[in-house]
C-alpha cells in the first residue's frame, strides 16, 4: 500500500490533484511555495499530517488545512495600478516609506505585486492572488515583454542605441551581467521607449548609465499586451477577462497542468 512518503503522480480521477497543486489551485500559494510549506509539516489533509507534496487529494471532498486553518477556493482577482513616484512596492517598509499597499488599502488585501517598480519609477503595476500567473509573468523563462518610457539627460547617438538594443554589460548584485537584446525606439528629443523581456533590479537605469547617460524619469507603460493607457496616476482598476487571458501562456492546457 502506498504511504505518504511515496511519490504519487497526479490522478486521472476528477477533482484529484497532487497536494502541492491543490494549494496552488486553491489560490493559497504557488506550487514552489507549496512544496516548502508541506515539507515544514504545516499541512494536514482530513486532520492528518501530510508531508508528501505528490500525494493525491480530492479538492471537492477533502479538508486541506495550513497551520490548522482550512483552505478554501479563493476567487482570483487581478488589478492594474498606476504607481506614483515616491512609493515603494512592498507590503511594509522598514524605513517607513509609503507603499502601494498603503495606497490601495483593502482592495489589495491578499494580493501580490507582480514584480516591482523602484521608488523613483512610476507606471503599470499588476497585482493578483493568482500565484501561478504571477510566477509565469515574473519568470525570465517566460520572456514576457515589459515596455518602459524613459526621459534621459541627453540624446543617444546611433552607436549607443545599437549597444542598448544588442546587449550591454551592467552590474547586478555585484557581478557583471550582459543584458539580453531589447527594442529601443526614440519617441521624443530626450525620450525613449525600451522593451525588455527580462527584469533585473533598476535595469533600464543601469543600461543608460552604461552608455554614459542618465534616466531622469522612468515609467512602465505595458506588461505583455496589457497597457497602462489613460489610467491616471494613483488610480487602479480591475483587469478585464480578455486582458487576463492574453497574459496567460499561449498553451493554456500546459498552464492549467502546471497549477
What does this protein look like?
It is a single chain. The chain is α+β, with helices and mostly antiparallel strands. Helix content is about 25%, strand content about 30%. The chain has eight helices and 17 strands. The protein has helices spanning about 20-25, 30-40, 100-105, 130-140, 160-165, 205-210, 240-245, 250-259, and strands spanning about 15-20, 45, 50, 55-60, 65, 70, 80-85, 110-115, 120-130, 145-150, 170, 175-180, 185-190, 190-195, 215-225, 225, 235-240. The strands form four sheets. Strands 7, 8, 9, 10, 13, 14, 15, 16 and 17 form a nine-stranded mixed sheet that branches. α1 crosses α2 (about 30-40). The protein starts with 15 loop residues before the first strand and ends with a helix. About 30% of the residues are buried. The model is unreliable at about 1-10 and about 250-259 (pLDDT under 50).
Helix content: 10-25%
| % residues in beta strands | 25-35%
So what's the oligomer here?
single chain
On the 0-100 scale, what is the average pLDDT?
88
Looking at the structure, what is the overall shape? elongated
Order of helices and strands: EHHEEEEEEHEEHEHEEEEHEEEHH
Unreliable stretches (pLDDT < 50, length at least 5) are: 1-10, 251-259
Largest sheet: number of strands, sense, barrel closure: 9 strands, mixed
Distance between the first and last residues' Cα: 27 Å
- Radius of gyration, in angstroms, nearest whole number: 21 Å
| Class by SSE composition | alpha+beta
Number of strands: 17
Tally of contiguous helical segments: 8
Amino acid at each position: 500500500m502506498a504511504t505518504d512518503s511515496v511519490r504519487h503522480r497526479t490522478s486521472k480521477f476528477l477533482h484529484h490533484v497532487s497536494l502541492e497543486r491543490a494549494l496552488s489551485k486553491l489560490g493559497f500559494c504557488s506550487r514552489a511555495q507549496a512544496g516548502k510549506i508541506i515539507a515544514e509539516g504545516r499541512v494536514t489533509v482530513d486532520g492528518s499530517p501530510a508531508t508528501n507534496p505528490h500525494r493525491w487529494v480530492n479538492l471537492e471532498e477533502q479538508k486541506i488545512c495550513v497551520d490548522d486553518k482550512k483552505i478554501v477556493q479563493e476567487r482570483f482577482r487581478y488589478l492594474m495600478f498606476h504607481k506614483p513616484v515616491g512609493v515603494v512596492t512592498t507590503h511594509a517598509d522598514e524605513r517607513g516609506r509609503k507603499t502601494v499597499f498603503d495606497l490601495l488599502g483593502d482592495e489589495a488585501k491578499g494580493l501580490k505585486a507582480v514584480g516591482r517598480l523602484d521608488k523613483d519609477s512610476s507606471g503599470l503595476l499588476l497585482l493578483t492572488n493568482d500565484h501561478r500567473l504571477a510566477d509565469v509573468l515574473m519568470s525570465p523563462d517566460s520572456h514576457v515583454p515589459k515596455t518602459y518610457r524613459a526621459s534621459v539627460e541627453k540624446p543617444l547617438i546611433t552607436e549607443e542605441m545599437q549597444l542598448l538594443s544588442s546587449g550591454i554589460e551592467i552590474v547586478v548584485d555585484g557581478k557583471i551581467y550582459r543584458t539580453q537584446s531589447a527594442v529601443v525606439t526614440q519617441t521624443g528629443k530626450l525620450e525613449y521607449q525600451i522593451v525588455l523581456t527580462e527584469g533585473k533590479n533598476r535595469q533600464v537605469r543601469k543600461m543608460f548609465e552604461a552608455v554614459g547617460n542618465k534616466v531622469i524619469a522612468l515609467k512602465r507603460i505595458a506588461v505583455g499586451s496589457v497597457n497602462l493607457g489613460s489610467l491616471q496616476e494613483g488610480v487602479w482598476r480591475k483587469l478585464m477577462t480578455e486582458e487576463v487571458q492574453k497574459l496567460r501562456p499561449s498553451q493554456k492546457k500546459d498552464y492549467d497542468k502546471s497549477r
